[in-house]
Design brief:
The complex is a heterodimer of chains A (383) and B (72). Chain A is mainly beta and 383 residues long. Chain A is built from one helix and 21 strands. The radius of gyration of chain B is 17 Å and the shape is flat.
């Protein structure tokens, strides 16, 4: 058993740094084992504050998610993975926002509880070469009022120094919307939008205990980008986005701990820019139990067409009172426990996310920002 | 501000190409540990990206983008 573990570790080490994508890693050889994983998650958004409620239900979404993943080597040069998820949600969401007589914004929520389901499936394949790999994936996401078909390709190449990997990739998705009750609420009956993106990243081994990855990406969304379920919402039909992400991993042998630090800068031509910083410490006990406390900080500016109250007069070409385009910040804390027993790994994790307008960047804020709590449990079977 | 960040990002990528300390394969055991992976739990990171995408204006920066959904 010990020699098998050592062999797997050694082969992984020899394959480093074959890393692709900003957050995922692929060595230049297929994974040594097959893994079947399942996760059940529940996340509940806190009720809207009573002082901010104008009408409708204050109860926001309660969401259940089931995820299944299978990944396996195929021969000596290929690997395959299949990801699927099933999501069901119920609750109310913001419909429009008005300014009260004392100047405070108040939110009218959708009157009735909304029930929605979403299913998605992703199939991925990867070919491994002596100094790199090339992958392709296809995804279908289906809801009763939304369907998305997407495709992505990515690859990586390890330089001759065997310490640097260059990665890149591109994706395209073709989405169709068909909002429910379109006639009743004067919503657009159907619409389309498309998303394309590309990224490039560099991964560098810094020394025997640390590795750094930095990448930039651009994305363009075009088509109907407004929210059809808002009473008033009109956004540009094109959105160009840019991100810069840097990730650092440092292993502390004496503490049997790995420190993860990730930073992302984001901006787009809606006028939104944001900073995201997350830190986590992966502390291993007795080689089989891992405890992962984590912290995440997020801050965004408001979009330049965000209005604190819905613009019923349509005074400007573009306007939205969607809280997601407002100025706000959020802090979240998480804790995760992994316990390995033979071929099984049991996983328990939770996260508390707290949004606060006072942590935001420039621009106006919204009373509709969300706090939520997530709990997950699952199991990995390795064979 | 945006152009400054883009410049810093580009410079970081280029400096990443500069030679760092050469680490022989037999000293890469700690780097190869599961807990040192950039994405040690694909299912959890997939779910988190989906949740943040549905609640925040920012997206991307996680390699190739996944498909869209009606959540945002």
């Amino acid at each position: 058993m010990h020699s098998k573990t050592l062999l797997a570790l050694t082969s992984s080490a020899l394959a480093l740094p074959g890393v692709v994508a900003v957050s995922s890693a692929h060595a230049d050889t297929p994974p040594a084992v097959s893994v079947l994983s399942y996760r059940a998650s529940s996340y509940k958004e806190d009720d809207l504050d009573a002082s901010a409620l104008l009408a409708g239900s204050a109860e926001r979404y309660d969401i259940k998610v089931h995820q299944l993943r299978y990944s396996a080597p195929v021969g000596e040069k290929y690997s395959f993975s299949l990801d699927s998820s099933y999501e069901s949600m119920s609750g109310a969401s913001p419909w429009y926002t008005v300014e009260s007589v004392n100047g405070d914004a108040k939110v009218a929520m959708s009157g009735a509880t909304i029930y929605e389901k979403r299913r998605d499936i992703t199939a991925s394949g990867r070919r491994y070469f002596d100094s790199g790999n090339l992958g392709i994936s296809l995804t279908i996401s289906d809801e009763n009022d939304y369907r998305s078909n997407s495709m992505a390709v990515d690859g990586s190449f390890t330089l001759a120094n065997n310490s640097t990997t260059i990665s890149g990739g591109a994706s395209y998705s073709d989405d169709e919307l068909s909002p429910t009750d379109a006639l009743l609420f004067n919503r657009i009956p159907s619409a389309t939008k498309a998303n394309s993106s590309a990224f490039v990243s560099v991964t560098q081994i810094l020394n025997q205990f640390s590795i750094l990855q930095s990448g930039i990406s651009t994305a363009r969304a075009s088509g109907f980008l407004s929210d059809p379920y808002k009473l008033v919402d009109r956004r540009p039909e094109e959105r160009n986005q840019f991100t810069w992400t840097t990730s650092w991993r440092r292993y502390f042998r004496a503490q049997t701990s790995a420190l993860h630090a990730n930073y992302r800068y984001y901006d787009d031509d809606f006028g939104v820019s944001s900073h995201t910083l997350d830190l986590s410490l992966h502390k291993t006990f007795r080689r089989s139990i891992t405890l992962v406390p984590s912290l995440r900080y997020y801050q965004q500016d408001a979009a330049n067409f965000f209005t604190p109250a819905s613009d019923f007069l349509q005074a400007s070409d573009f306007n939205s009172a969607d809280f997601r385009l407002s100025s706000y910040g959020a802090l979240s804390a998480g804790l995760k426990l992994n316990a390995r027993v033979g071929k099984y790994t049991f996983v328990l994790s939770g996260e508390r996310y707290k949004a606060d307008a006072s942590l935001g960047g420039s621009g106006a804020s919204s009373p509709g920002i969300i706090d939520f709590t997530r709990l997950s449990a699952g199991i990995d079977f390795t064979f | 501000m945006n152009s400054v960040v883009r410049l810093v990002a580009t410079l970081t990528l280029l400096t990443g190409l500069a030679a760092c300390e050469a680490v022989p394969a037999y000293q890469r055991g700690d780097l190869a540990r599961t807990e040192m992976a950039f994405d040690p739990d694909p299912l959890e990171s997939r779910l988190n990206q989906h949740i943040y995408f549905s609640k925040e204006a920012s997206t991307g920066g996680n390699g190739v983008a996944a498909g869209g959904c009606g959540c945002n």
